[in-house]
């Protein structure tokens, strides 16, 4: 089984929780009332997913290739007031 040092996690604020999603692992996500708790829970979700892969003999997915922020300033249409 390939060794992966870690995975990129995207955190988003929802109404009353922090959502945590792992783009390289479709369906792997978690949440928590704080960033710290969301981080702990998504780490557990990743580890459980990897354990299931190991048990079934499947390949470990690689982490995402590249992450960047695309700035949109100057490209967004003017919004009506």
Shape: extended
SSE topology string:
EEEH
Tell me the count of domains: 1
The CATH architecture is 2-Layer Sandwich
| Structural classification | alpha+beta
Task: Return the CATH topology.
Answer: Double Stranded RNA Binding Domain
Described by strand count, sense and barrel closure, the largest sheet is:
3 strands, antiparallel
**Total helix count?**
1
Residues in helices, as a percent range: 25-40%
- The CATH class name reads Alpha Beta
Distance between the termini: 55 Å
Q: What is the CA-atom radius of gyration, in angstroms?
A: 16 Å
Describe this structure in words.
This protein has a three-stranded antiparallel beta sheet, covered by helices on one side. 10% of the residues are buried. The chain is extended and about 55 Å long. The mean pLDDT is 87. It has a single domain, classed as Double Stranded RNA Binding Domain. The protein has one helix at 35-56, and strands at 10-13, 18-21, 29-32. Helix content is 27%, strand content 15%. A hairpin with a 4-residue loop joins β1 (10-13) and β2 (18-21). By secondary structure, it is of the alpha+beta class.
